[in-house]
Amino acid sequence: MDSLFTANGKFNPNETRGKVISCKGAVVWGPGQPFVMEKVQVDPPQKMEVRVKILFTSICHTDLSAWKGENEAQRAYPRILGHEAAGIIESVGEGVVDMKEGDHVIPIFNGECGDCAYCKSEKTNLCQRFRVNPMKVAMENDGKTRFWTLDGRPIYHFLNTSTFIEYTVLDLACVVKIDPHAHLRNMSLLSCGVSTGVGAAWKTANVQTGSSVAIFGLGAVGLAVAEGARLRGASRIIGIDINPSKFIKGKLLGITDFINPKDLERPVHEIIAEMTGGGVDYSFECTGDSAVLREAFFSTHDGWGLTVILGVHTSPKMLPFHPMELFDGRKLVGSVFGDFKGKTQLPHFAEQCMRGKVNLDEFITHELPFTKISEAFQLLMDGKSLRCLLHLSD
């Protein structure tokens, strides 16, 4: 049993508060290199920071892209990746008054300070200082890392979170307190994938009852879009993916029609136009592929169609459109974290999930101990998992 808990399982941080913690972390030393389970020294939280014991973490395609080194901005090593998780606050730093030891929390890569002009605006969920930033590799407070090797080498942070470790240090702006009765196992999914997809349907697109939707890419985010569209009463939800196994899960999450581009001799958007009488009302691009983005855009109805970009585009290619192609009434918008304001809006979404509005269990396809993180990544690469949940607790 971890020293954070007593023999009967009661929370007790007295042994660790204010001290450097030596714990297990999955360290990446270079692009595509194997994860190495190492003893990592984790500093106490500084001003406006919290230290969290991670109990569950899962793997997103963004983690996979970063591990491969596909984005130049993410090439800082050694590094601790991971950004989808849930845990318990072990200790808090100076100035933290709205959270305390023992609180149940989820980290968010797109933070919310609550004080800047962005956070005070209803027009955006970005934050001036704590928005998602793959260039950022250290803490906001002093520009230093809180992770160290046993011989004193710095280990860099990732996406404001770094959850592939037993204890992590987070800026207060990047931590969301949730109901202590919520099952942390499921709540970890709200750190990224499910919130991003459902939020894109509810908040970014504002999908209307009776509308039609096309989703390009049926990973966890795409299927979360489907769930969000279903809950909004969309009459037709078309899923597009080259992996036919995704269609089975898709049916459980509201998808009504399926298209495998490999089975077609014509562009997907032409097929969708025929199926829907001119195109869908909303399309969602969840692959990060510019050619797929073009198909998603033209799968919407001219005059009013809206395409939401959710995929992470690591390629240097620019948008695959001529400016005049935007003059037919179709619109294109990007969505970060489903347009949820993390700290002010995510707790309510978590409560909705607790009441069963969103079936989070359907997104967890595998569960493994933390030490098998490489196996979990392989499952994602092979297209066999949506979310593989890693257990960090004993």
From TrEMBL:
Q: Which residue numbers delimit the Alcohol dehydrogenase-like C-terminal domain? A: 220-339
Keyword list (alphabetical) reads:
Metal-binding, NAD, Oxidoreductase, Zinc
Q: Where is the Alcohol dehydrogenase-like N-terminal domain?
A: 47-177
Q: Which GO terms describe its molecular function?
A: oxidoreductase activity; zinc ion binding
Describe its assembly.
Homodimer.
Q: Which family does it belong to?
A: Belongs to the zinc-containing alcohol dehydrogenase family. Class-III subfamily.
Please report the name of this protein according to its UniProt entry: Alcohol dehydrogenase-like 4
Whose protein is this, by species?
Nelumbo nucifera (Sacred lotus)
